[in-house]
Amino acid sequence: MTRELRRVTLLIFAMFAALLVSTTTIQYAQAGNLAADSRNVRTLYESYSTQRGPILVKGTPIASSVPSADNYKYLRSYADGPMYSAVTGFYPVNGEPTGLEYSMNAELSGTSSGQFFDRLKRLVTGQVPVGASVETTIDPVAQKAAWDALGSYTGSVIVTEPATGRIVAMVSKPGYDPNILAVHEGNKVDASYRALTSDPGSPLINRAISGNLNPPGSVFKLVVASAALESGRYTGDSELPNPGALTLPGTTAVVHNSDDGTCGSGATATIATALRLSCNIPFAELGMELGGGAIRAQAEKYGFNSTFTIPMTTAASVYPRVLDVPQTGLSAFGQGNDRVTPIQMAIVSSTIANGGMVMVPSVVESVTAPDLTPISGFNPATRGRAISEKTATALTRMMVDNVRDGAASNARIEGVAVAGKTGTAENGTTDPYTLWFTGFAPADNPRYAITVLVENGGGLGQTGYGNLVAAPIAKKVLEAVLKK
Amino acid sequence: MSSATESVTAAPTPPRGVRRLRRPQRVRNLELLLLVAACGLNIFAIVLVQLGTLRTLNPQVFILGTGISVLVFGVHTAMRFLARDADPFLLPIATLLNGLGIAMIYRIDLANHETGWQSAALRQVAWSTIATACAVVTIIALRNHRVLFRYTYLAGFTAIVLLLLPLVPGLGREVSGARVWIGFGSFATFQPGEIAKIALAVFFAGYLVTNRDSLSMVGRRVLGMRFPRARDLGPLLVVWAFSMSVIVFQRDLGTALLFFGLFLVTLYIATGRLSWVLCGLLLFIAGALVASQTLDYVHNRFENWLDPFNPARAQGASYQLVQGLFGLAHGGFVGTGWGLGRPDITPVSQSDYIVASLGEELGLTGVFAILALYILFVSRGLRIGFAGHDDFGKLLGVGLSFVVALQVFIVVGGVTRVIPLTGLTTPFLAAGGSSLVANWIVVALLLRLSDTIRKRPRLVIGG
Q1: Closest CA of chain B from A63, distance in Å
Q2: CA distance A13 to B375
Q3: B362: nearest CA partner in chain A
Q4: I need a surface site. Which of A18, A410, B33, B201 has the fewest CB within 10 A?
Q5: What percent of chain A has pLDDT over 70?
Q6: What is the largest CA-CA distance in chain A?
Q7: Position B67 confidence tier, pLDDT thresholds 50, 70, 90
Q8: How far is A374 from chain B (nearest CA, A)?
């Protein structure tokens, strides 16, 4: 009987061993996977029952969690929702968050690695966990000015600090109210979400960093001019043939300048003149002389064809990888298959303003634990040098001329040297233009760089142009931020 | 075999005076110490539940926290007189498990805003009173476990009657598909199957002790295996098959598995015939496979077990299983803490799924601690098997311990996907009166058995 008993004892221990293994598998090995399952409402409830940290603009919350009496315990609430929607994104009960709510989720929910000891302390002391607060680099004055200046246009305004990469304003229009997507009734969220996605204005798209990328038009000439000056074979005074029309080699496509005339009166036009008057033909010629490879190399030094983490992930702006000669000609004045985001153009002008160093833009100033101990602060990050200081100075001079007595005259500000470049990009033979302005001020000591994008021709079809629509917006915003 | 039958009839009691002189109640004092610790932990758990859910303390602590303490100290006192040499670990472990169960049931009451007699925790305390009273009565009434041997066939008959009760019109109640409950009016419901497991353990032990020789020695060989004569195996098979069919008819798979396991293990220990056990297991597996293909409710259980996360089931048939897994995962290594998780999301989180609830709030560490308590409890029972002197006592002790172990395995294994999920209560922890009463009677029987064993050697020395 003892032998049998011993075997039964072993059986019993084997049964319990199986339970120890199964519970360990579920509660330890697979715990992460199970927590990540979208059907796991506990994860959802917990993410709400933790008081999510606020998103702050100069200390004032633009997103905060207020106590609510339901299962979720806290309701996410947004102040000035539409104006800041491009920054905050939204935090729904039944889907993925967007914007900073997504990118800074670990910090806001208190689960980032930097908050490990805080979590441990709260676990031991039994305190309710609280997320960290995220202070943004946004300046409320700049944000308001940009929001107001963009008016009813569809588009975006980005203002950065060239020396640091801080984004002080980021606006995308049309905006949306994140509050209607933060309610706890899933069906209401769904209805609001459906309404927003079927809205022809696509308000959920953050045009500043993603969305339908637009052709840059003439603002891309800054990149081509950079490539030319960097090659060492050209200066601002290098001359290019100046015909009234240019047939691209091997095609029947004819390039015209924007006024259908020549670029100035001479038989040749300098690069400086071509940039100042925003002439297409000389840049097409220049581009074909430089070759697509050189332009692409320069564009990629500025960040084209790659994404930035600001900490939202931006869409990569495109300079095509393979181009023949006529395509290179088109690409050199921002047409063809060139596609850019406003943030990429902001990086280009910020880099020129910053003496050639590419600063990685960021919208997060600092992260602070609930007990006010800093978790991380702002560290300007550079992506390396795109152009030499000499090239930057030369380009700045050309951009200042462009505003003073050139194609970007509507960005002029009394008493301030503004450097800028406009763009009027074609989208198709009959489609409305995409209108651009990118630049910075003051030119001698740049404090702010600004990029304005207006889609759909600003409502003017093919009759609007960058200087008419985008430049005045930049002027208004720059005036507001420089006045402070 | 003759020794066992002899010892059943002749059970000499040692002279009282001698025993008192030889050993002060060191065992009982150890038990007292452990009981104080267990009750302390239980009260602490209730306090933490209140702090975790209500963020304040209220007087219910005294009702829920001290209620069971008073009762178990009653059991302890009774044992100082009636079973002074009984195992000192069984009572504290049962107390701790019972108390943890009440704390978790109370915690889920709070989440569901249940108060008064709607509160399952209060009912659980009431049932604990009845259960511990039953335990005391058992210890008082049953001064010697060998008395049970006389009632072997009565026990078998009782098991069948108990199992038939839920089928009596007007008395039986069907809860979530299984007709295993009886109820009077709308208040008390009782699951007689829980008590039947004790009756069956007694019957199997008694019958096998008497007939094991004829079972294993006599019979004809078929295919290299000796099969017993029908008249030896008959009564056993009748009782067992009847219980099984009744249970299958009542759609209570968990209990079927429990009884079958008990049957095989006692049969194996009594006869030492592994081949029969393997045969039985093969038959069971074959039967289970056939059932899983033909019976809808069995089929569903299998499907849920194999693929609970299937989108077609996760919100429906396997919702409970999936939610339990989510809950356990949510608890992780150390758990959310009492009152800080969301165990109430899982259906029947107070009874069948109480282990998942505890796992969520106490974490893997808590589950390990609870399983360790069960292992300790079961191993104390198995000691009776090893150290016992009469075969009936050994078989009964091992049978009862094995029932507890298997029940834990079926429930926790079902929750954690070791085996398909079947409805059974977790011994001592789960909300439910019949389960509490049955398991406390198991405690009483094991205490009585262990007391008998410990007394014996001194008799030899003294005698």
Answers
A1: 26
A2: 8
A3: A27
A4: B33
A5: 96
A6: 115
A7: confident
A8: 27
Query: pLDDT class for A125, splitting at 50, 70, 90?
Result: low
**Among residues A79, A67, A174, A88, which one has the least CA distance to residue A130?**
A67
Mean pLDDT, rounded, for A132-155: 94
Q: What residue in A sits closest to B384 (Cα-Cα)?
A: A5
pLDDT given for residue B462 in this prediction: 39
Q: How far apart are CA A199 and CA A208, in angstroms?
A: 18
Strand A364-368, strand A254-255: pairing: unpaired
Give backbone dihedrals phi and psi of B438, rounded to 5 degrees, phi first.
Answer: -60, -45
Q: What beta strand segments (E) does A161-285 contain? A: 167-173, 239-241, 246-247, 254-255, 268-270
Which member of A210, A218, A226, A349 is catalytic?
Answer: A218
For residue B268, list chain A residues with Cβ-Cβ distance below 8 A.
4, 7-8
Report the distance separating Cα B293 and Cα B5, nearest Å: 46
Instruction: Give Rg (Cα) of chain B.
Output: 22
pLDDT bucket at B9, cuts 50 / 70 / 90: very low
Closest Cα in chain B to A45? B342
Of A22, A30, A37, which is closest to B418 when you measure between CB atoms?
Answer: A22
**For residue B148, which of B8, B2, B271 has the smallest C-alpha distance?**
B8
CB-CB under 8 Å, B325 with A15: no
Averaged pLDDT, A174-191: 89
Instruction: Find chain B residues with C-beta within 8 A of A26's C-beta.
Output: 325, 328-329, 416-417
Task: Enter the ipTM.
Answer: 0.88
* Pairwise CA distance, residues B339 & B55, whole Å: 10
Q: Give tens-digit pLDDT for A13-45.
A: 999 999 999 999 999 888 888 887 777 777 777
Sort out which chain B residues have CB atoms less than 8 A from A11's CB and list them. 265
Is the CB of residue A72 less than 8 Å away from at least one CB of chain B? no
Rounded-to-integer distance, Cα A419 and Cα A392, Å: 12
Distance from the Cα of residue B217 to its chain's centroid: 33
Write down the pLDDT at residue A190. Answer: 87
SS3 state at B281: helix
Opening angle at CA B237, ends B235 and B242, nearest 5: 100
Indicate yes or no: CB of B382 within 8 angstroms of CB of A12: yes
Query: Does A322 touch chain B if contact means CB atoms closer than 8 Å?
Result: no
User: What domains appear along chain A, each with residue ranges and CATH number?
Assistant: 217-483 (3.40.710.10)
CB contact under 8 A, B413 and A19: yes
CB contact A36 to B (< 8 Å): no
Instruction: State residue A123's pLDDT score.
Output: 63
Beta-ladder partners of B178? B175
Which tokens belong to A234? 């050209």
> In sequence order, what are the residues at sequence separation of 6 or more whose Cβ sits closer than 8 angstroms to the Cβ of residue A363?
A87, A100, A136, A137, A138, A167, A170, A310, A311, A312
Omega before residue A442 within 30° of 0, cis: yes
- Flag whether pLDDT at B335 surpasses 90: no
- Taking CB atoms and an 8 Å limit, are A5 and B394 in contact across chains? yes
Q: Which among B330, B384, B426 is the top mutation candidate for probing chain A, defined by the most A β-carbons within 10 Å of its own β-carbon?
A: B330
Neighboring chain A residues of B329 at a CB cutoff of 8 Å: 26-27, 30-31, 33-35, 40
Give catalytic status of residue A218 as yes or no.
Answer: yes
User: Measured between alpha carbons, how far is residue A90 from residues A95, A170, A408 in Å?
Assistant: 10, 16, 36
- Among candidates A19, A31, A35 on the partner chain, residue whose Cβ is nearest the Cβ of B371: A19
Tens-digit pLDDT profile for residues A37-83: 777 777 777 767 678 889 999 999 999 988 887 777 788 899 999 99
Higher pLDDT, B219 or B381: B381
Between chains, do B329 and A126 touch, taking CB under 8 Å as contact?
no
- Evaluate whether A46 touches A111 at the Cβ level (below 8 Å): no
Rounded Cα–Cα distance for residues A163 and A160 (Å): 9
Residue B304: what residue type? Answer: N
Token pair for B163: 């199992």
